[in-house]
Amino acid sequence: MAGPYTGFGGGPGASVADRVAAWLVTALVSTKFSLLFSFLFGYSFVLQERSAERAGAAFAPRHLRRVIALLGIGLAHAVLLYPGDILTLYAALALVLYGLRGLSPRAALRLAAGLVLGLAAVLLAYGVLTVAYTAPLTPQAYAPYVADTVDAYRGGAGSVPAEHVRELPSAFGTALLYAPGKLAAFLAGLAAARVGLVERRGRDRAWLWRVVVRGLPVGLAGGVVSACCCAGRPLDSRWFPVGEAVAVLTGPALAASYACGLLLVLDAVRPAAARVLAAAGRMALTHYLSQSLVLAFVFTGYGLGLYDRLGTAVVLLGCVLLYVAQLAAVARLMARTRYGPAELLLRAVTRGTATRGRPEPVSGSSRPSDGVRRVP
């Protein structure tokens, strides 16, 4: 949302700090946390299925209403705030997941592995051909192609949604390309929920440590290779698909290490910190949409129009400060209500009834399951 030079690690005038920031984000962050959210989406699918069963309600109509709500929110988000929206893809894949819900945990994991390997193979093949038969593209050479985009985002409020609509075909095409990876994470979450992984292992420190110790080296090594290919240094832009292939293969290891490491940290800190993060998890959709709203105000003609005017390091610092502010806000909000506004809307549509926003205390002893149960 901040500029058009993601694949180069910064624009023509990027500083060393900007390039280092872009490299670190690619190595340590990009794709890893989206995998976690996708995993939790698949996990919550099973929990919602069980919730409908306990309530004596048919799951299929509930799920369809949820999909329609996600699609509507996602389309509005894509047109008004950010064309790279993920909710529309989640809505489409949620229908696929419903069709695959009868798979055994082992079959779901096998299909997930096949999807990951297939996507990585496609990206790697494309990357090898790109390296072999194309010339590198520099930020300076790329600038004329994005000049209209820069002007549109810096223009008036009316030019922003028009630019978003123009970018939607490309954004949807990219989403379709990476859909197998998201579906694989959905299936992994589905399998984990079927066997009660979080409930059985969420407080097993020895098991959590094993995941961290085994997954972290693989994930970090893959992150380094991916950053070398995707962040513009030391390899040029032709290597981007190769780096993406490596990220697809090794990203799950780093994502799992992050998740297990976070559970270990939460088990060691005061319950108040766990309550804040649990509350943030219950408002994940509101967080996602509000981040887009703030960033759209900062970078587009809706507000400050700083698109392509701030370096990666400054943008990264701003994102960290924004998340800290969101945590502070959610801590205050959750004292008054159980769910955020976006979650209330989604639950109301899903259940076909209004949902009251009563506050609900989050105990430290129940945080692993709470963190999953309330993913929107």
TrEMBL record:
Keywords: Membrane, Transmembrane, Transmembrane helix. The keyword Transmembrane helix applies. The keyword Ubl conjugation does not apply. It holds the Pfam family DUF418. Residues 355-376 are annotated as: Disordered. InterPro entries: Bact_Transport_Assoc, DUF418. It comes from the Bacteria. The chain crosses the membrane at residues 20-43, 64-81, 87-104, 111-135, 175-195, 207-225, 245-266, 287-307, 313-335. Residues 192-352 form the DUF418 domain. This is DUF418 domain-containing protein. It comes from Streptomyces shenzhenensis. The lineage of its organism: Bacteria, Bacillati, Actinomycetota, Actinomycetes, Kitasatosporales.
